[in-house]
Design a protein that fits this description.
Strand content: 5-15%
Shape: elongated
Strand order of the largest sheet: 2-1-3
Structural class: alpha+beta
Number of domains: 2
Distance between the termini: 78 Å
Radius of gyration: 28 Å
């Protein structure tokens, strides 16, 4: 890996900095890129099962919460009407 910067002509030049203190761009070779699975997984398309489970979780939790609250409110109203 190398720290590179863009000069005034738009070309990449070596910035002569360590990777830790690099403030511009880090240039990687193809073998270095393949060694970083987290970088590859960020841009990977999720599989269909993951998308389906995320959608169903986002849809089911509010519906279940609403139905549970409705059920409790029905029981509370029934008890309150019986007391009067």
């Amino acid at each position: 890996m190398r720290c590179v910067a863009i000069d005034i002509n738009g070309f990449l030049v070596d910035a002569n900095q360590s990777i830790e203190s690099c403030t511009d761009f880090v240039l990687m070779s193809s073998s270095e890129w393949s060694e970083y699975p987290t970088l590859l997984s960020i841009f990977e398309m999720p599989i269909q099962a993951d998308i389906q489970s995320a959608f169903m979780t986002g849809f089911a939790i509010p519906v279940i919460a609403y139905l549970t609250a409705w059920g409790y409110q029905t029981v509370i109203n029934f008890i309150n009407e019986r007391d009067y």
